[in-house]
Amino acid sequence: MSTVYADTLEPTVPTKDTTLGATGDSITIGANSINTNVIKDSGGNVLFQSDGSGTLSNVNSAFSANLKLLSTSTVSSATSSVSITSNIDSSYDVYIFKFCNVHCEDDDRQFSFQVSTDGGSSYGIAGTSTVFQAYHFEDDSATSLSYQANVDRANSTSYMNIGISMNNPADSSLDGELYLFAPSSTTYVKHWYATTQLMAGATGVVGPWSVNNFTAGYFNTTSAVDAIDFEFSSSSQMDNAVIKMYGL
Predict the structure, then answer these.
(1) CB–CB of 97/70 below 8 Å?
(2) What CATH number is associated with residue 186?
(3) Has residue 58 been placed in a domain?
(4) 41 in a domain, yes or no?
(5) What is the mean pLDDT of the chain?
(6) In this predicted model, what pLDDT tens digit does every residue of 156-210 receive, in sequence order?
């Protein structure tokens, strides 16, 4: 094996490429690092480009099927709601919201959401939903799988419930995700579905228990939806949460 020591390696003709190895050869980078701002394939197609600080541009469309993180909303002190009023547009057909360690200040509250067609100036688009849940008591005293007719919506402008019977012990929280489809469509209503998992409880009821909520529905509008708001029912405060929005 020969060793070549050089600080700079350039082609003999400036317009030609410098080739390392032949077709089928494996090239090993000793430090496991290639430092460059533009990555191309063998056909000269740009796969992605960096500005040298980690911000990518010219990302090849072959990567478009991957989730793209668009925003992160973090709650660390009491707040009435979390509103996302940007980046919901025609760029993506599917928007995914992921919830991590959402905590409520009160017992027996519903985690819910609504959408806006005016950039978040108002929320209250009429919608219809279905809600069912499975639960299991911590002491193994009860289990159930049932439809929850008391928290669904029928062409209502109220918030859509997606996390049912949240309680507020220090170690309780809600996690899950919400899918919103084609919010920028001006032809179809706006479908959504959500799955949440939480430690639940209610005043005067033995608990806690594990609850898996399955909810789905649509907002009855053909106007483009461009903002979304999350809150707990009965004006209860949210004092901890991480909500990430992705485009797909």
Answers:
(1) no
(2) 2.60.120
(3) no
(4) no
(5) 89
(6) 999 999 999 888 888 889 999 999 999 999 999 999 999 999 987 655 666 788 9
